[in-house]
Amino acid sequence: MKIAADIFTIVAILTGGFFFLAGTVGLLRFPDTLTRLHALTKADNLGLGLVVLGLAPQTGSVLAGLKMILVWLLVLLASATVSQLIARSARRHGPHP
Amino acid sequence: MNIALNLALILLLLALAFWTVVARETFAAVAGFVSYGLLLTLAWVALSAVDVALTEAAIGAGLTGALLIGAASRLRKTEAAARAERPGPATRVLAAIVATAVAAAIAACVLLLPDPAPTLAPEVARNIASTGVGNPITAVLMSFRAMDTLLEAIVLLFGLLGIWSLGSDRYWGGRPGLAPVAEPNGILAYMARVLPPIGIVVGIYILWVGADYPGGKFQGGTVLAAMWLLLMMSGLLDAPAVSQRWVRLALIAGPAAFILVGLLGVFVANAFLAYPEGLAKPLIIVIEVALLPSLAVTLTLLLIGPPQRAGSPP
After folding, report:
1. Which chain A residues are within 8 Å of B188, Cβ to Cβ?
2. Which candidate among A47, A77, B93, B101 keeps its CA 20 to 30 Å from the CA of B293?
3. What ipTM did this prediction achieve?
């Protein structure tokens, strides 16, 4: 059981790390604000979510796991809102609409 | 593995600090400073100083960052002119010498510390039982060095008075910031409806848990202040006129309660800010609970700046 949990943790965190890497590459390589935001949401939503899911079996208490999931949900809310705000501002003021 | 992580953290911190100093654009420097604060939070966690990490994230990166972003956007108009101005070589050499001397003095102070460094930690650990709280940081801040905490709260009030005094005479006692532009279906208004209930619970939780675990009134107060600011930024709520009685009362309630408890100590325990035997924990909780709203109001008003409009709605 312990080994299964560990394997799940390793796989989930590695996958999460991959999404963070992909998001960062996108942030650096994509040509304009909107596509860069699109790349970042992958890191925030999937990357952090997978890392949280992977860490949950290692916390040892349900409450700590739930707290981490709550943190992830709050990050989802904040990053979705901020992405919208940045995108609107970019559409209004940006050089390329 | 751990060493590699710590080394990466140190290198990133140094690189970000360097970037913040050399960035020519004010906004870029502020962005660097905020990321620097968040990374510094990780460094404090790596050093097991979770209380300091929380404060750094809430006040160092969050609140100071927001203040600096406000300053940068105000400076945008004059930035090109300021950048075109180049100080003469004498000024620059002098600035370099002074900066290097200060850095060298700080480095010398850190490097010449006796090893092991002088510490009061064993003393705190021996006497913590008398305060009734479980978190040594809270014991130091609220009992052994309560005077410092009291003065900190009062210094914030003076800072706020300084900011208010920057407003023009016409609007003295009026409302700070710009008039809210209500966009009731905007995404920010949605966020400002969803987040505050959670934020208020989290802020009070951080205060309450501070007795035994990392947390406390400053961190909790910052979270509450952030929620109020979010409501004002979204246009759902207008900033209060700073002459309103409840604003003034909320500002001084916390420090006043602190001073009253301190004076009680003079009569009951023979020293200012001394707690009577067995009553330390309840009194600490009274002070912390009284300080939380005061700090939240102070920090919010610090951020939204001097009064810029008439107090009564037009």
Report:
1. 81, 85
2. A77
3. 0.82
